[in-house]
């Protein structure tokens, strides 16, 4: 079969570009350890309901005045809901998913992370302004994705 010279050149050029892209992915995954952000902590999503932390996730106080908020995301809710935290204190969120990938975005703040089944995502923020905040799932996760919202209540510190 006869293939025109120009067509051959373009075929090889396209194959070269694909090879470069795939190579970039493989190389960065190997050398730069692509992983969920924060830290590497794995968890079995199948037994999440029996997990001491994520079976009944809640807000726990820390000795330094901050709090740790464990959050379980699943179709189509966050637990606990609402979440109550103090203002101007370090708030460490630890989130994971029981089923598919969900988002965890506290609207109007820079708190935003993915809840990935099998992993615990962790980040620490503090909220300067007391009030109620909307928590939205920003990763499409199924038919009722648009209904997957939660509430964060930031309470004024006791004087
Ligand atoms: Cu979701």
Which terms would index this structure?
alpha+beta; Immunoglobulin-like; five-stranded mixed sheet; 1 helix; 17% helix; binds copper (II) ion
Question: Which secondary structure elements does this structure contain, and how are they paired or packed?
Answer:
Blueprint: H1 5-31, E1 59-61, E2 67-74, E3 77-79, E4 83-86, E5 91-97, E6 102-106, E7 112-115, E8 121-125, E9 131-136, E10 149-155
Parallel strand pairs: 2-5, 4-10
Antiparallel strand pairs: 1-2, 2-3, 5-8, 6-7, 6-9, 9-10
Residues 76, 102, 137, 141, 145, 148 line the site of copper (II) ion.
What does it look like?
The chain contains one helix and ten strands, in the order αββββββββββ. It is 17% helix and 33% strand. The longest helix has 27 residues, at 5-31. The model has no long low-confidence stretch (mean pLDDT 91). The protein has 159 residues and is an alpha+beta fold. A hairpin with a 5-residue loop joins strand 6 and strand 7 (112-115). The protein has one helix spanning 5-31, and strands spanning 59-61, 67-74, 77-79, 83-86, 91-97, 102-106, 112-115, 121-125, 131-136, 149-155. The chain folds into two domains: 1-34; 45-155, Immunoglobulin-like. The strands form two sheets. Strands 1, 2, 3, 5 and 8 form a five-stranded mixed sheet that branches. It has a five-stranded mixed sheet with strand order 4-10-9-6-7, with no helix packed on it. The structure holds copper (II) ion (CU).
